[in-house]
Amino acid sequence: MLGAVLQARDGDLRVLLWQRAQQPHLHRWALPGGRLAATEDVETSIRRQLAEKVDVHKLSHVEQISVFSAPDRFPGRRVVATAFLGLVPSDIDPEVPADTRWHPVADLPDTAFDHGEIALTARDRLRAKLSYTNIGFALAPAEFTVSELRRIYSAALGYQVSATNLQRVLSRRGVLETTGRTVSAGPSGGRPPALFRFTNRDLEVTDPFAVLRPPSRGGQD
Amino acid sequence: MLGAVLQARDGDLRVLLWQRAQQPHLHRWALPGGRLAATEDVETSIRRQLAEKVDVHKLSHVEQISVFSAPDRFPGRRVVATAFLGLVPSDIDPEVPADTRWHPVADLPDTAFDHGEIALTARDRLRAKLSYTNIGFALAPAEFTVSELRRIYSAALGYQVSATNLQRVLSRRGVLETTGRTVSAGPSGGRPPALFRFTNRDLEVTDPFAVLRPPSRGGQD
DNA sequence: CCAAAAGTGTTGTGGCTACACCCATGG
DNA sequence: CCATGGGTGTAGCCACAACACTTTTGG
């Protein structure tokens, strides 16, 4: 039961890690997690673990990544871990314990066990879903300017995206809508930006990317 | 540990199910599977289970679907299942036990526990991957005509795909290649079809569907 | 020579990137 | 009035679906 909690922070995509104080893997950085209790399903459990151990209460999105089960992944005894991707909006700053840090996923420290690999898998899953779902809602505040959103997408994807096309793609898909309000311009002037929000804060697939799609007229399934 | 083994058979996408002979869920249809042994990882284990129990030795592709963990999914005690998608090429016909059948996924019988839901999840995963990967190799024989491939894709997707465009999309992506050989025409005449094969029999993503893709010139990550 | 099936040529379209251009503000 | 950042208009591209057309066989 491990959670790769990701957030767009300071221009990078970061993952929450804590530094181990005992053997094995003393001083290495690990993903937070814990054991499944008898009356929970796995998603409930990982949410509880993250709230209790690292004060992350407001995961805007949680999904399963995979089960990691190589017999030698944990020294001594057999440990099978179910790994999760969790996302935190960029305007939230949980009060994490002293041994815990947000590390850039692109520049991980020495990680315990296979936790580095898990973090990278979580990042890749997020990146893929940014393209074909509305999952950006889980990284962004409730309302934001297109510039802010651009910074978030750039951090998560690892390259600069154009604000112009970001707005256009998400609007065309009906993912983004304007609030009608604007916020005042920055200290160096410029036109005051409009505030936007995501129309839907549940995950939905917005680009079914079905090549070989069903015939346009005629029977479905 | 459960395997949803799918195959394109007789024009349908089918899943291998066996009929339970005891309580609970007497006479309902269940996915094959078993328990994880101490020295295996989960993929090795599901391959072993399927070979031992239903004589499926030649899974051309195996991947994890998800962990199913609702506390009440199994009556009595808590059972957490890791579910897999397994694929069998259409020219193989395993000698399955007497209590086992290939059921169309679109028309499932009464299933045990949540196994029906798992089979549908597996089908949806396969359908998505047919669009953006070369996963067709796992459903097709080593060599085949475009017509045969069309039948396989149509069965898996649940709607008719055009042979013309199927060949074109897969060729453009470099997924398909001709063997140079042809096979003789059918009883009703017609031009003898060419034999094709997949260029690669390992899973690869052929359409990265990255909207918001990185700038064409300039810095990557 | 005709029906049937395989395979190619070609047109139109939608969604995207790139970039030029216009808009609204602070100093 | 000009620098700065926000936002729109538009051209071009590319992968695809659709369908007309050509090719090659059996009878």
UniProtKB/TrEMBL annotation, chains A, B:
Domain Nudix hydrolase residue range list: 1-126
CDD domains reported for this sequence: NUDIX_NadM_like
Family annotation (Pfam families): NUDIX (PF00293), WHD_NrtR (PF21906)
Superkingdom of the source species: Bacteria
Annotated SUPFAM superfamilies: Nudix, Winged helix' DNA-binding domain
InterPro entries linked to this entry: NUDIX_hydrolase-like_dom_sf, NUDIX_hydrolase_dom, WH-like_DNA-bd_sf, WH_DNA-bd_sf, WHD_NrtR
Protein name: NUDIX domain-containing protein
